[in-house]
UniProtKB/TrEMBL annotation:
Binds 1 NAD(+) per subunit. Belongs to the glycosyl hydrolase 4 family. InterPro entries: Glyco_hydro_4 (IPR001088), Glyco_hydro_4_C (IPR022616), Lactate_DH/Glyco_Ohase_4_C (IPR015955), NAD(P)-bd_dom_sf (IPR036291). This is Glycosyl hydrolase family 4 C-terminal domain-containing protein. GO terms for molecular function: hydrolase activity, hydrolyzing O-glycosyl compounds; metal ion binding; oxidoreductase activity, acting on the CH-OH group of donors, NAD or NADP as acceptor. Pfam families: Glyco_hydro_4 (PF02056), Glyco_hydro_4C (PF11975). The active site is at D173 (proton donor), Y264 (proton acceptor). It comes from Fusobacterium ulcerans 12-1B. Mn(2+) binds at C172, H202. The record marks E111 as: Increases basicity of active site Tyr. Keywords: Cobalt, Glycosidase, Hydrolase, Iron, Manganese, Metal-binding, NAD, Nickel.
Amino acid sequence: MKRKSHIITIAGAGSARVPALLGNLIEYKDRFPVSKIIMYDIDNERMGQMEAYDRLVLKCYYPEAEIVFTTDAETAYSKTDFIFCQMRVGKGEMRSNDEKIPLKYGLVGQETCGPGGFSYGMRSLQGMKEMVEKVRSYSKETWILNYTNPAAIVALGLDRMFPEDKRILNLCDQPYSLLKSYAKILEVDQEELVPKYFGLNHFGWFTDLKDKAGNDLFEKLRTYLRDHDFQPFNAEQRAKSWLDTYVRVNKYMKFFDEYIPTTYMQYYMFADEIVEESDPEYTRADEAKDGREKEVFETCKSAEGKTTMEGIEMLTNSVFGKLMVEVAESIAYDLNNPFVVMVKNNGLITNFPAEAIVEVDGTIGKDGAKGNYVGEIKPFYKGLMEGQYAYELLTVEAFMEKSYTKALQALTLNRTVISPVKAKMVLDDLMSVSKDFWVLEK
Ligand code: G6P
Ligand code: MN
């Protein structure tokens, strides 16, 4: 039976990740058919750079889907079933500041971890708050699938600001990407893998892995990671910094090999070494701009004035895009497929605050995400998570109350900072470049 089709809005359609997302929608058109795609961005020029490609690829491979480009929120949000949202408030320029300013003080320069993540979090909370208010002024039914980073802070903040809203789902593709990489190492299909995972977003661990028949694969994977470099499944398409990031998982496991950490754990464990290796003049923001973004814009440019896709590369290579579409599919047809999800703890981790947003293995269906029961976690993980959760919470409260003191407390608690002296210097510096986005009161 043919599945019912939906209207979707891509909010942040000026993102260089979007053309590949369209490729994924094409790949999945039988599984998650769409009748209309509304491309929305407040930056028309950026979105416009990809418009010719976006139109052409859909005309060629998805003619049944109507496509609309708009900078008008009402057109984007008033009649739509799913919003796929990936906004980057302050764009690449602010990402660059988030990464470079901490490095001036010998602190990790990363977009979602440490002071950079704090600063980005403050911008995203404002952008997402306005977005959710706008969307809900039109409809309570529309699903907001949100990929906006730093997802841990955004998820917690949205839960605080919109506690009754059951149709916002915050997503991260890193666990999904890691599972793809495990599947490649273990030479099994990703669909065969049944993981156990707990933590906070960008701060968690795989604790078990089986196949569907119940055979243990975790031991095999841990053994492999003891003597082989960990590589992403798509290593050949990854920039050097990402390859280094994966290999540092091996390093973590030389110290603690009980569980397998997310790649982001390294910023909290090996901060000094990472700072040492960073180039304060050229960070991931530059690499992403000179790499992925440039390639995507060039491909899109090559579509201008064309009527067929002949000689034009079709972009499909996106873990994020696949995840978004699979999640929408699982909600739309109530499939309860397994995903690693961000949900309110509410007793899943029995010795962790009920109101925290945790990341655990679970399922997604018509009522959103459900986490699987974890039980009690051990002191090492609990200790790490408590500190990180307090940092996230204080960041959200600093945003909601415009509190400088809470911001300073947040940064001092962050394992990449620790020193209140450095926390203050980096906070003041970040604040001075962020005036257009956030202000704190002393
Ligand atoms: C992973 C993370 C995302 C993050 C992305 C950054 O996929 O899960 O949260 O946005 O990496 O990738 P980039 O190539 O922009 O550095
Ligand atoms: Mn992520």
